[in-house]
TrEMBL record, chain A:
PANTHER family: BRANCHED-CHAIN AMINO ACID TRANSPORT SYSTEM PERMEASE PROTEIN LIVH, HIGH-AFFINITY BRANCHED-CHAIN AMINO ACID TRANSPORT SYSTEM PERMEASE PROTEIN LIVH. It comes from Nitratireductor pacificus pht-3B. This is Inner-membrane translocator. One of its GO terms (molecular function) is L-isoleucine transmembrane transporter activity. The chain crosses the membrane at residues 12-35, 42-63, 69-88, 100-119, 156-176, 206-227, 284-302. Keywords: Amino-acid transport, Cell inner membrane, Cell membrane, Membrane, Transmembrane, Transmembrane helix, Transport. Belongs to the binding-protein-dependent transport system permease family. LivHM subfamily. CDD domains: TM_PBP1_LivH_like. It comes from the Bacteria. GO terms for biological process: D-alanine transmembrane transport; L-alanine transport; L-isoleucine import across plasma membrane. GO terms for cellular component: plasma membrane. It is found in: Cell membrane.
Automatic annotation (TrEMBL), chain B:
One of its GO terms (cellular component) is plasma membrane. It is found in: Cell membrane. It comes from the Bacteria. It comes from Nitratireductor pacificus pht-3B. This is Inner-membrane translocator. Residues 23-119 form the High-affinity branched-chain amino acid transport system permease LivHM N-terminal domain. It is a multi-pass membrane protein.
């Protein structure tokens, strides 16, 4: 029981990170109907920026008060990663907006390769470790097994991750449902041509969608650095595929769906590693992707897609 | 940042969009963006040091990168985007005007390349006796990629199904042969058809459930399957030896004759002197013939109803279905045939290396093969050849360029940049010429007379 609760907490934490990345996939898919294959690598970029900024603040400038440091890191990495998201869209997707269907997907794969190798070349291929910054937590339960006592801990780190995710999600839902920008996005989602006829700057709206997705990916990147303490240039690939799975599972195009899917994928992965085998945890995630796409293509909260001729 | 596709000039009634001022302003913006993007990556480097991470500033590299972007964007603005007479216009007019001449040249080029490939090993042994082994080995590598490219071209280029897990079938082929040889003592020639068959079967098994999916979903699921196969190969230690890989894979024989020194070998049987290069020449001809078979089968299939159905499917799936084409079976055949050739190439790879491990079958490999197909022009056979030669051969050649090290310092390793170049080329080609370098097409089906389909028409969605 204690083990189960602990895994549940771990799963929810991991799921929050996946959920934040998944939102980027889902929003882009909703608005231009393409899979932004490079989004996982934008997340990786965000993690690297967060790490570098953290080091600048702590070692070069000598800041010690952790909450302020983290807040600055968060804002800086969101800003800079957004610039990357914007550039990727501008260079690789916008010129192809009337091209055949596979074209943007191919450039997306190209962009993903470019980002990975750019980071590998400029930052080196070795992993970058960061010692745990936030330690301690609350002990929720205490139980005993034959191997001794087992504690259920909710670490402060996990609390921060889950809280940040909840706050960001709430803010985001408001942004989409209440602001003119959100309205423009939903309009573009429904009918891009009509939206542009009604005076919405479609290109700008799409760019902003990428910027927002990248900003959320940067948050996920920072959390990843803090939670795992190790990053390398390749983390974006697996995290990207898993987050995409989350977006599909929740119903692609649906924001609450992405969050729900992220949490589910996080839980499944953690429980799979906890109870079956760690080696095959990626297989579990990939299999879910295939199964969902085959049997439930519109996902849990998505709407079935109707192809019009 | 330096490159961007169709830049719409901001033409106002009073502002002249072509002015130098506008160009400089735009270039400055690009440079600013480059500075922002590069700051944490080019300007800063984190390295592992005793007691944590060490931060190093690289202002020089950062400023140089900004200047390069500024200059590049400025030149592009002045000569392409913001001028009334872009230099590229003459180029494209020249190209489209000479389409038929280009086609003629293509035909000559095709046969020229074929003839060269036919005599290639002897060309190298005669003219480069000192380095023949290295060159023939490179030719074998390129030929393997050509074959893989042609195999994937059936799936991506003809049927329009984006397969990001093609390397899975390559792995299936390689492991089928390696395991058959290890457990059942199969030779290369016996295992080759079986490996192809197994790969095709896997193609059907994996394809059957997923081929209902739309293009981009299909891409992701194939990617997932590719990874699943790799992870299984990595972790099923009892059967595949996991990360240790399988070694001692037998070499192919020439009608039962082994290419070895001494009694009963190939050289002994024909009464010629033994030379280790013979084995390379033999391997080269095996992959050359396998690649030719791939090409021949593809070209013939394009003439058959199934091939036409593939191309129709690529253009419009809904129209196909309303015309009564069984889309699932059509896709499945493309998938299976592509997988089969991947399997053949895989078992050739296993016999050439003599050792395989899951490391050789990562997503990167799929991406390289896809890049070759995309750069060559989706569906173009000769394009794949050119792209494979340029990309694989070009990168290998980079390794040997000593002067680059003199320019960039001794720590400079061009091979590091291989995938970066691949990725950039994929993006640039898609933006600049979405149908690849070779974008004119011989139509597969004709009504009365053959009409060439030019690149500009293709770009509008006409023809193929």
């Amino acid at each position: 029981m204690e083990y189960f609760v602990q895994q549940l907490i771990n799963g929810l934490t991991l799921g929050s990170i996946y959920g934040l990345i998944a939102i980027g996939y889902t929003m882009v898919y909703g608005i231009i109907g393409m899979i932004n294959f490079a989004h996982g690598d934008v997340f990786m970029i965000g993690a690297f920026i967060a790490l570098a900024m953290f080091l600048i603040l702590t070692t070069v400038l000598g800041f010690t008060f952790l909450p302020v440091v983290l807040l600055i890191v968060l804002i800086v990495s969101m800003l800079f990663t957004s610039a990357w998201g914007w550039t990727v869209e501008r260079l690789a997707y916008r010129p192809l907006r009337g091209s055949f269907r596979l074209a943007p997907l191919i450039t997306a794969i190209g962009m993903s390769i470019v980002l990975q190798n750019f980071v590998q070349i400029t930052q080196g291929a070795r992993v970058k470790p960061l010692p745990p910054q936030i330690q301690g937590g609350i002990t929720l339960m205490e139980g005993s097994t034959e191997n001794g006592t087992i504690l259920v801990q909710l670490s402060y780190m996990q609390i921060i991750i889950i809280l940040t995710t909840v706050v960001l999600m709430a803010g985001f839902t408001l942004l989409i449902s209440r602001t003119p920008l959100g309205r423009a996005q939903r309009a573009c989602e429904q009918d891009r041509k009509m939206a542009s006829l009604l005076g919405i700057n479609v290109d700008r709206t799409i760019s902003l969608t990428f910027v927002m997705g990248a900003a959320l990916a940067a948050v996920a990147g920072l959390m990843f650095v803090l939670l795992y303490g190790v990053i390398d240039f390749y983390i974006g690939f697996l995290a990207g595929v898993k987050a995409f799975t989350a977006a599909v599972l929740g119903g692609i195009g649906s924001l609450p769906g992405a969050m729900l899917g992220g949490l589910l994928i996080g839980l499944i992965e953690v429980f799979w590693s906890g109870y079956f085998s760690v080696e095959y945890k990626d297989v579990a995630a990939f299999s879910i992707l295939a199964i969902v796409l085959i049997f439930l293509p519109s996902g849990l909260l998505g709407q079935p897609e109707v192809e019009k001729v | 940042m330096a490159v961007s596709g169709t830049k719409t000039p901001v033409a106002g009634p009073q502002g002249d969009p072509n002015s130098l001022q506008a160009s400089i302003k735009d270039a400055a913006m690009a440079a600013f963006l480059a500075g922002v993007l590069g700051f944490f990556f080019i300007g800063i480097r984190t390295d592992i040091a005793p007691g944590g991470l060490d931060l190093k500033m690289r202002w020089g590299a950062w400023i140089i990168s900004i200047l390069i972007v500024f200059a590049g964007r400025l030149l592009l603005n002045l000569f392409v985007y913001k001028t009334r007479r872009p230099v590229t216009r003459n180029l494209s007019i020249g190209l489209s005007g000479s389409e038929s001449r280009l086609a003629q040249a293509g035909k000559v080029l095709k046969w020229g390349l074929f003839a060269f490939a036919l005599i290639l090993p002897f060309f190298f042994t005669t003219f480069f006796p000192g380095r023949d082994r290295q060159f023939i080995d490179l030719a074998i590598l390129i030929m393997t990629y050509i074959m893989l490219g042609w195999g994937l071209n059936i799936v991506v280029g003809l049927a329009g199904l984006l397969d990001l897990g093609y390397v899975a079938f390559y792995a299936v082929g390689a492991y089928s042969f390696a395991l058959l040889a290890q457990y059942l003592d199969f030779g290369f020639w016996l295992a080759l058809p079986l490996a192809g068959l197994l790969a095709a079967t896997w193609g059907v098994i994996l394809g059957f459930p997923v081929l209902r999916l739309r293009g981009d979903y299909l891409a992701i699921v194939t990617l997932a399957f590719g990874e699943i196969i790799r992870v299984v190969l990595l972790n099923w230690y009892e059967f595949t030896k996991g990360p240790d890989g399988i070694s001692g894979i037998p070499k192919p024989t020439f009608f039962g004759l082994e290419l070895k020194r001494g009694e009963g070998g190939f050289a002994d049987f024909f009464g010629i002197a033994y030379d280790p290069i013979q084995r390379f020449i033999f391997l080269y001809y095996i992959i050359f013939i396998l690649a030719l078979i791939t090409n021949f089968v593809t070209m013939r299939l394009r003439r058959l109803p199934i091939g036409r159905a593939w191309e129709a499917l690529r253009e419009d799936e809904i129209a196909c279905r309303s015309l009564g084409i069984n889309t699932r079976n059509t896709k499945l055949t493309a998938f299976a045939i592509g997988a089969m050739f991947g399997g053949f190439a895989g078992s050739f790879f296993a016999t050439r290396q003599g050792f395989i491990s899951p490391e050789s079958f990562t997503f990167l490999e799929s991406a390289i093969i896809l890049a070759i197909v995309v750069l060559g022009g989706l569906g173009s056979q000769i394009g794949v050849v050119i792209a494979a030669v340029v990309m694989i051969g070009g990168i290998e050649m980079l390794r040997n360029l000593g002067f680059l090290q003199q320019v960039f310092g001794s720590g400079f390793d061009p091979v590091q940049y291989r995938m970066l170049i691949f990725g950039l080329a994929m993006v640039l080609i898609m933006v600049w010429k979405p149908r690849g370098l070779i974008s004119t097409r011989e139509p597969s089906a004709v009504l009365k007379e053959k009409k060439r389909i030019g690149a500009d028409m293709v770009a509008q969605g006409e023809g193929h």
